[in-house]
Amino acid sequence: MAGSQVRVSQTLPHGFTLMAQTNDSGEVEIAVASGQYAVSVFDQRFSYETIVPVNPEKVTQTQVLVNRTSFSAFWAEAQDSSTSGQVETWNQVEVAVSTLDNNFFTYPIVQSRNYSNFVFPTNVFLQPTKIRFNGVTFGPSGPEIPATLISQVRSSGDIWLVLRPLAPFSLSGANYLGVVAYEASGNVTVPGA
């Protein structure tokens, strides 16, 4: 993903830290001496950390895969306590999503249908959504709004969430809400290992 922050820290006491940002292709190259390094990749949407061994004169690759899953809400209630037409950051949004029959994926990076034990991360996103019934087209009608997960309750295949938006947003032009969750995983390739 473009624009993600990458931090490489030497695991020794008093070691150094290098910071970089991924390019438009989601890649970054950092040259370091041999040793053990803590590598962190973070973004507003996700974070990932791992320990990476670097051997002399070898190229070690760390690949981070980000799964972006969108859930369409079958029930939502948003507070507008200021009557401004916006959901403010002090308001709560209650949303119910199904994890059994989820056909709402927008811009998927990696798709998975195994949601039997799905637990939303503490940092999720709300997305105002347009639903067109001619041809059953689903689509976002606004940017993803970062939100803090206050609580979640599982009931059969449904999850009931209480969220607090971290930025105000308007539901104008949206028929409904979607909930977006990011999950990062990765692997390290060490030459000769």
Protein traits:
193 residues, mainly beta, Elongation Factor Tu (Ef-tu), domain 3, 2 domains, six-stranded antiparallel barrel, 13 strands, elongated
3D structure, described in words:
This protein is mainly β. The protein has no helices and 13 strands. It has 2 domains: 5-64; 67-183, Elongation Factor Tu (Ef-tu), domain 3 (Beta Barrel), CATH 2.40.30. Helices cover 0% and strands 53% of the residues.
Describe the structure concisely:
With 193 residues, the protein is mainly beta. It has strands at residues 5-10, 17-21, 35-42, 47-54, 61-78, 86-87, 93-98, 123-132, 137-140, 145-155, 158-165, 169-170, 176-189. The protein has no helices and 13 strands.
Number of strands: 13
CATH architecture of the largest domain, please? Beta Barrel
Biggest sheet: strands, sense, closure? 6 strands, antiparallel, barrel
Poorly predicted runs of 5 or more residues? 101-117
Gross morphology is: elongated
Query: Radius of gyration, Cα only, in angstroms?
Result: 20 Å
Q: How confident overall, as mean pLDDT? A: 78
Counting structural domains, the number is 2
User: What is the class of the largest domain in the CATH system?
Assistant: Mainly Beta
Q: Please, how many helices?
A: 0
Please bin the fraction of helical residues.
under 10%
Q: What is the CATH topology of the largest domain?
A: Elongation Factor Tu (Ef-tu), domain 3
Strand order of the largest sheet: 5-7-11-10-8-13
Strand composition percent: over 45%
Label the structural class: mainly beta
H/E element order: EEEEEEEEEEEEE
For the record, give the distance between the C-alpha atoms at the N and C termini, rounded to a whole number. Answer: 27 Å
